[in-house]
Amino acid sequence: MKREIKTTNDGSKTLFINDLNENYHSHHGALQEAEHVFIKNGLNLVNDYEINILELGFGTGLNVLVTINEYLKTDKNHIINYFTLEKYPINESEIEDLAYFEHFDNPEFKEIYQKIHQAEWGKSVEIINGFNLKKIQCDFFDLKDIELPKINLVYFDCFGARVQPDLWEKPLFELVSDKMSVNGLLTTYSSKGSVRRILQELNFKVEKKQGPPGKREMINAVKL
């Protein structure tokens, strides 16, 4: 599918898929959305020593980068193992044009950004000390066959239900739930009533949270 680079309202870029009329991130601000949904309402709410993150899906790699940025702000007395699924990886030209490292003050972020995207698919790579990344190229429904440690944080960042409704139905959420630990947190930009009901059926405690810029609400769900 043909993709083009677009600049969002906070100055960070995103990819736009013409055939689907769909952005990879919010046009209100790609970086703001990632930090609000997956850091403020995700990573910052998990206090485990070893944090196993599952992301659906890797996309532009922005969520990995903001997670590393937040990790570097801490005393780094914990470990993050980050597992991310992606069926259609972006290409080198797109990676170069997105240039997310330009939005961070840390001079090492260009190298970190490159290391994220150059990491070999299917292998665990230490991006920085204490932060391990494993990119897995697969369909999200292949999750059932992927061996993972118990996941205590899920970044559910699939394309919207308008273009991929099957990713927001019970079968995929069941697969994700099976990989999670008790008290594990799932965070997503979605606030769909059907998603809340599915998660409640799967024994999650669901909470509506204030959404990122341009969106009124989002969902946090804790596995009981």
UniProtKB/TrEMBL annotation:
Gene3D superfamilies per UniProt: Vaccinia Virus protein VP39
UniProt keywords, alphabetically: Methyltransferase, Transferase
GO BP terms in the entry: methylation
MF (Gene Ontology): oxidoreductase activity, acting on the CH-NH group of donors; tRNA (5-methylaminomethyl-2-thiouridylate)(34)-methyltransferase activity
Keyword Mitochondrion: no
Family annotation (InterPro entries): MnmC-like_methylTransf, SAM-dependent_MTases_sf, tRNA_MNMC2
Annotated ranges, domain MnmC-like methyltransferase: 130-223
Transmembrane residue ranges: none
PANTHER family per the UniProt record, alphabetical: MNMC-LIKE METHYLTRANSFERASE DOMAIN-CONTAINING PROTEIN, SLL0983 PROTEIN
Protein name (Swiss-Prot/TrEMBL): tRNA U34 5-methylaminomethyl-2-thiouridine-forming methyltransferase MnmC
Organism: Chryseobacterium limigenitum
